[in-house]
Structures are given as C-alpha cells and as structure tokens.
UniProtKB/TrEMBL annotation:
SUPFAM superfamilies: Thioredoxin-like
Classification via CDD domains: TRX_family
Residue ranges constituting the Thioredoxin domain according to the UniProt record: 1-121
Protein name, per record: Thioredoxin family protein
Species name: Haloplanus ruber
InterPro entries per UniProt: Thioredoxin-like_sf, Thioredoxin_domain
Database matches in Gene3D superfamilies: Glutaredoxin
Superkingdom assignment: Archaea
Length: 125
C-alpha cells in the first residue's frame, strides 16, 4: 500500500452554497480525513469535499490526511474509533465538533457544514 490519499485532491471547482463555504472555513477548525485510494466511496466523495475545502480557503495545514490499508488499519484509526471510510472528523481546539462517517443523506461538505453551524449557534445561545 502506498501512503497517499490522492482522493483528497480536488477535482474541478466546487460550486455550492456560500453558507457551506462559510461554515467549513470558520476560524479554528481542523479536519482529519481517513480514506483509501482503492475505496469506491472515497473516490466518489472525497475529491468533491477537497474542492469544497479549497473553495472555503481552508489551508493545507488544517487538513490531516490518513490513508488506511485494505484492513482499514492506519494512523489514528484506533484513537478515533474509525471503522468505515471515508470518515472526516472536524475539531476545534482539540475537541471534536462533528464527524462524517462513510455515507449520509447529503454530501460531506453540506453534512459537516450543517452540523458546524448548528453547534456554533447552540454555543452562542
């Protein structure tokens, strides 16, 4: 296995809602992404998510990529309880804000942005 996660390379330009970009680009957020280049779900979802992060202006140093092998073993898998890929964990100041696991009813960017916005609204209330 190679230690890359090429599926996290943006393909094309992300064209989506500005509110999604605003939520993803909020100050202090970092992203941990587990996936594999051999994984069909990762191939289908991660390039678009990477394009959204790029469009939101999230710098590379706030995105950690963790490739896993065929047995879904890799760095951070045990510590974060990763069972399915792709998994994206969003953190702020070392605390988990939200996570996307494998498949949800909406794309990764929209799913995470909605939960980031909800959490921030609750924190301000």
């Amino acid at each position: 296995m190679t230690a890359t996660l090429e599926t996290m390379e943006p393909t094309g330009t992300w064209e989506g809602d500005n509110e999604v970009l605003a939520a993803l680009g909020r100050k202090g957020l970092s992203y941990k992404v587990w996936g594999a280049d051999w994984c069909g779900d990762c191939q289908g979802q991660l390039p678009t998510f990477a394009a959204a992060l790029d469009a939101a202006g999230v710098p590379d140093e706030r995105i950690d990529r963790y490739p896993v092998d065929d047995d879904k073993d890799g760095e951070g898998v045990d510590a974060y309880g990763i069972e399915y890929i792709p998994t994206v964990v969003v953190e702020r100041a070392g605390e988990e804000v939200t996570r996307f696991v494998e498949e949800e009813p909406e794309p990764i960017a929209e799913y995470l942005a909605g939960r980031i916005a909800e959490r921030d609204e609750r924190a301000q209330a």
